[in-house]
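Give me the fold.
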Amino acid sequence: MKKIIVIISLLFLGIIAVTWLYFKSMSGVEGSKESVFKVIPDNASLVFEYKNENSFYDIFKDFGLFKDVLGNQSIDHLGALKRIFVDDKSISGVFNKSDLFFSIHQTGKSKSNILIIAPFGKDVNLSESEMIELIKTKYKIIKDSSASDHSYQIAFSNQSNFHFYIHQKTLIGSFNKSLVEESKAKLANGKSANQFKIDFTNPRNRNSIANLYINFAKLPNFLNNFSSRKNPEETFSLKSIDATASLNINYQSNAFMFSGITEVNQKATNYFNLFLNQQPGQNTLRNIIPNDAADYSFFYISDFKRFRKGLDDLFILRKESEKLKTQLDNIKTKHSINIDEELLPVLANEFGVVQLASGDKIGIVKTNNTNRLSFLLSTISSPSEDQIRHFDDSFLLYYFLGDPFKYFRRPYYAIVENHLIVANNNSALKRFLNSYKKQDFLIRTDKNIDFQQYLSNQGNIFYFIHNSNSKAIISSFLNSTSYTAFKSDDFKWKDIYGLAIQFSADKDRFFTNLYMSKIPDQDKLLPKVDSLMIDSITQSNKK
């Protein structure tokens, strides 16, 4: 009996030891990643990480989307660095099987650049001076005499210089000197907080061959840097997102596919957070967007009362609640109807806004009682023409549904089947109704069918941009310098079909999917699906 107890005790101690060693090694990896993010300047909105292993290069050796998005110059720069730090056998061992990081930053008006962070391999114990001497055996290094501490540069034949420094067995560098200085200044000032709230213990991040980190709070400023307008409307929806995403790559030969978790700032009071603690649902609104849709923002809520309570709190914070309440009281006095109590029960779970290629916006709200909705709205609107009517009061839909409908003050509207359709002008609404009548929907095109096959149809927030249909909108958003670069041969944005991002609530966070793909080759497209088949699929999904 004693022998059995001794054996069990030894096994138990062995399990504890193995567990301790495992988590000790994991904590080392997590600590190194944490230190990487502390050297990244705070204005970073995107960070890409990949494992410096042969498997990554084998998988992505023919992958052209990096070049299409980053441009020829950035790819040439990265290629030059790869030849030094990855391909050169005398140096590559230092970074073997480590995780390499690339953060994107604005470096001037209409300019951006990449900061490269390359930690040494976990078994490498080279000092800074030893690392410099190793690089000197193959390449000419110039020490930056103007710097107060150790900074270096490597000159390339195309007259571009790579500036770098080494900190705690990590090489940090860029082809933009000011970006390197910003990183050093952050360390010198002791302001080395990690702006990305990332859970480095997540096994998905550790095991994925590549990860994308997004700081949504920083994205609007980054994008606005390429615009000539103040607070452009195109970044409005992003301004309500105070969150960071940690996404893992899924390989697709002609697309970026990422999925993971978005952690939100729980203390933030914004529109985005209203969709937390809601159950995900099916996005059916995408089935009726017209063929000329440039982009859309669709939303799904499972608990309308909870959503409205959060929205009311948001209006109080914005000091808008009294004005909106006064409007409802006026409607009640004028029309003898309590629209606040009557309208909520007939609204279904889905609503959103579509922007057309012309720039016109169409609001869509799904209803569960078409007849009742039609009657209620007829009491607070005036006839326009045919089936179209005009709201008598401003911001009514904004009061019930929030930010996406603030653009619609006194919109024109029509009710089609189980959808309320609104627009700010008669002509845009008539064009939409005409597309609806002809069943001229984007989802029925072969390219969109190919695009949608990789997207989940379940979620709470759905964003989509159709690149070709957005040409005029992108042109009006970008300043002349940025638009010239956007259209140039340096980038291949014209080959991109679209970008989609989806958020599915999971209590106090979101599961997130991000997908961007190139225009598919015609011979690789899925067989065209006719209208009857799509209608049958849609009906079966409803069941």
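Residues 291 and 442 are 4 Å apart (CA to CA).
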